[in-house]
Design brief:
400 residues, alpha+beta, four-stranded mixed β-sheet, globular
Length: 400
């Protein structure tokens, strides 16, 4: 097998957009990622993406950000404020788990802390299974844990969630309820369109697990990276401590700059579906692999400047490019949740009161307003179970 490495920004973008290159990063994590939206290709991917995209509308993102998420954020944060400290990764998962469950279509009928904790544990397991290619643990053990977690998700959450939605869909067909009374989530969309897509029960189960882990995993890690970069920046620029507590537009720029430096997946793997020639001139066939180095592409000095390796929230990027680079991908496999996590890029005439900042910025801004600082008695540590440059624990304390 030949491997072709792509590191430049323009070449990486071209490779991500190439319709003859299929996703291959998650083959090792097939136990949870086989045939989910992210790993599909071609017509099958197009049909399912168009269906599920009905949930991911900007007006719905804005509704969640302004109406739903603030209450969830305050309720989740308060116990940590009462304790005077928190671990960022744990907090990030807990505050996003209900939101991602809402989008996926997983009900929590009991509404108890124990129920949320159970879902939290399952999602952590799915996240490790999805990124198995970078895991340092025994893959057979991880796969067994994922299978057990999938069975629990099916029994405790998915089966009752499906039953409620199927009953509502039947009532809609009978004219007993209006369209607006149906849940707006991925599961409802898929159940209403079962005749249009091939979605066996095991694939539907993995699709739900994928949505649960993708939202919580990437959001939590992005938040922790952004907090670390802001802490470091403000220690070097103490005049900005006050600014990050009051100026959310500045915080969003910090978050976008951190996202550029720390893409959720540092590399993307692609497999040619037919003979292809890359922008570099490399010729490959279906036995080969294209390794797209997103971390390197996002630090391309010809695009982001001679100081591209540095965190610089005031950085100007070329017109037409996102400040977070290729972190959310591009082309048909671009992340559906980009605007939910990253918000909308602010224009010069933006109204801060109505701007959509994205969930990561809201998390970071709320923590900073609460006086979050690294806990000097308990320094952060990297995640020991993965090759990815993620934090395993990042303790903070709250000091106003």
């Amino acid at each position: 097998m030949k491997q072709s490495f792509v590191t430049g920004f323009d070449a990486a973008g071209a490779a991500l957009r190439n319709p003859d290159l299929a996703q291959s990063m998650y083959e090792a994590g097939a136990v949870v990622m086989d045939k989910v939206l992210l790993t599909l290709h071609g017509e099958e991917h197009r049909v399912r993406r168009l269906l599920e995209f009905r949930v991911f509308r900007k007006n719905f993102f804005a509704y969640y950000e302004r109406e739903v998420f603030p209450a969830t954020l305050r309720a989740t944060l308060q116990p940590y404020l009462d304790a005077g400290r928190a671990s960022l990764i744990e907090f990030g998962y807990r505050v996003t788990i209900n939101l991602t469950a809402d989008f996926a279509g997983i009900d929590r009928p009991a509404g108890t802390v124990g129920e949320t904790e159970a879902l939290f544990g399952l999602v952590k397991t799915f996240s490790e299974g999805a990124t198995l290619v970078h895991s340092k643990r025994d893959p057979l053990r991880v796969q067994a844990e994922v299978r057990s977690a999938l069975a629990a998700l099916q029994k405790e959450f998915l089966t009752p969630s499906m039953a409620r939605r199927q009953a509502l869909i039947a009532r809609l067909a009978a004219g007993e309820i209006d369209e607006e009374e149906l849940p707006r989530d991925v599961l409802t969309v898929l159940l209403r369109n079962e005749d249009k897509i091939d979605l066996p029960p095991d694939v539907l189960l993995r699709e739900m697990a994928f949505y649960l882990q993708a939202g919580s995993h990437s959001t939590s890690n992005s938040m922790a990276h952004a907090m670390h970069e802001i802490f470091t920046w403000c220690d070097q620029h103490p005049e900005d401590w006050a600014r990050v507590r009051r100026d959310r537009l500045f915080v969003q720029r910090c978050v976008h700059e951190s996202m550029r430096l720390h893409p959720a997946s540092p590399v993307a793997w692609r497999r040619p579906t037919c003979p292809v020639t890359l922008k570099s001139g490399d010729q490959l066939d279906s036995k080969d692999r294209v390794v797209i180095d997103l971390a390197a592409a996002n630090r391309d000095q010809s695009v982001f400047g001679a100081d591209a390796d540095e965190f610089k929230p005031g950085r100007r990027v070329p017109q037409g490019l996102f400040p977070f680079g290729l972190t959310f991908g591009t082309g048909v496999h671009a992340c559906l949740g980009r605007d939910l996590d990253g918000g909308i890029i602010a224009r010069s005439d933006v109204d801060p009161a109505t701007h959509q900042y994205g969930l990561v910025t809201l998390l970071v801004a709320e923590l900073l307003q609460a006086g979050a600082r690294p806990d000097p008695r308990d320094p952060p540590v990297a995640d020991p179970n993965t090759q990815r440059q993620n934090w395993g624990r990042y303790p903070v304390e709250f000091k106003i």
